[in-house]
Write a structure and sequence with these properties.
Elements: H1 2-18, E1 23-25, H2 26-32, H3 39-48, E2 54-55, E3 67-70, H4 85-94, E4 109-110, E5 113-117, E6 120-124, E7 139-143, H5 144-147, H6 160-169, H7 172-185, H8 187-196
Bound molecules: zinc ion.
Amino acid sequence: MRNRSQGARSKLREYLLRNVGRVFETEELRQAAGNKTEWARRIRELRTEEGYKILTHNDRSDLKPGQYLLEDPKPQPAFARGVSKEVRAYVLDRNGFTCQMCGAPAGETHPYDAARKTRLQIGHIIDKSMGGSDDPENLRAICSVCNEGARNLTLDRPSQRKLLIQIRRATGEDQLAVLRWLASKFPQQIVRFAADAPKKNPAK
Ligand SMILES: [Zn+2]
């Protein structure tokens, strides 16, 4: 039973991904799911569990009831309700698309669970039940693994001193990987630092 429903879900996922941006009618999706009566539930799972932006008339006024549309092939991170799309994008960008608890970058294999790709969600720093707001200052990117509390990870950020020691001890190859990552995060600063850096062999 479980396998059958999984099958319908993957059939629907594949079908939708092959037809991004096209409007579907109910009947077409029912057929794509192999005529499973539960196809609407599978669509809901693709939305809520996998984060695919499958839109209906509730999301877009140009869609009629019974019509569906997959707008973007990339699944969206699950989000805190009440947080706008813009604020979500802003917080993810500010946090460098990296989990603020374990440091895992979005879309890459999760460092503590190789079976999962890192999916970022927006979490509250001070929980809403404790009076925390939906303001960007109270929001941060958290991966689904950390959000579930599946692991007791240390929340402390490494100190700058320890971090520098670790990098100095690393292999040149690993140092370059760090540099590459930093350069993509701080492109302007990298150019400035490079210009300011003392030349080892001045060509004067
Ligand atoms: Zn995490």
